Amino acid sequence: MTLDYGMLDGRRPYYRVGDPDGDPLFVLPGVSDAFQRGAPSRATAAVLSRLYRGVSDRDVWVVGRRRHIPVGSSTRDMAAEYATVIDEQGLWPADVIGVSMGGFIAQYLAADYADYVDSLALVSSATRLGGHGKQVIRDWRTLAGKGKWAELAADAERESATGVKQTVAPLLVEFAGTFADLRPAVPADVVVSLSASLEHDSRDVLDDIDAPTLVAAGDADHFFPEPRLREMKDGIDDATLALFKGAGHDLAVSEADELNGIVRRFFDGFRGDGLYP
């Protein structure tokens, strides 16, 4: 099994896991990518290997945004840069997974660069943020501007998780923040990423997405309420909705095995009843 990581062109973090001879699976991570504090590490590669073990027969690339994102960059601008990466690495056509903010970017990737995307899975993402989600992201942007990284990280756990984790995880993060510096490697990238997420609205390009698309999310997601999810599903010609009962925005981690099983079957062409929770 591949376990590779580093920086593409010295500025874009990537992780590669799975089978290097398998079909390419290209993953666009969420806004947490901008919060990374150091260089890609073997420890993170090992975590990703476990998260994506359900698709370990694929050549899985998890590729972050460039460091020092130009101020004012939109999710569409970021999609153009990802298209360049896919082309340079010879990964097209690839099955693509976009998680949260990565899902925003993946929508434009599929709409503007259709030849690069075979099938698409949009996880914990929609056409735009819901009302509560917008307010949370505005608050995070304010905290980022003030350098209150521990407070921001704790609130991210609170807003993303469900159940006991929603209460315990923020306390643990706040405690960790008293001993460790949670400042990201490039703080400005956090502000740019949050601003791009606030401005994202892909409703006018959904008709341009030709790839079979899976919309997968939790019905307790604070950022993307069900009407937003259905808005995206209904706007894409060949789209299917998988709604996980009781799951929050951290679906990709909290329900990793079940989610990856569904994504794998979808990418393999199964669309029938009983495929989804």
Automatic annotation (TrEMBL):
It comes from the Archaea. GO terms for molecular function: hydrolase activity. Gene3D superfamilies: alpha/beta hydrolase. It holds the Pfam family Abhydrolase_1. Keywords: Hydrolase. Residues 74-251 form the AB hydrolase-1 domain. InterPro entries: AB_hydrolase (IPR050471), AB_hydrolase_1 (IPR000073), AB_hydrolase_fold (IPR029058). PANTHER family: BLL5160 PROTEIN, HYDROLASE, ALPHA/BETA FOLD FAMILY PROTEIN. This is Alpha/beta hydrolase.
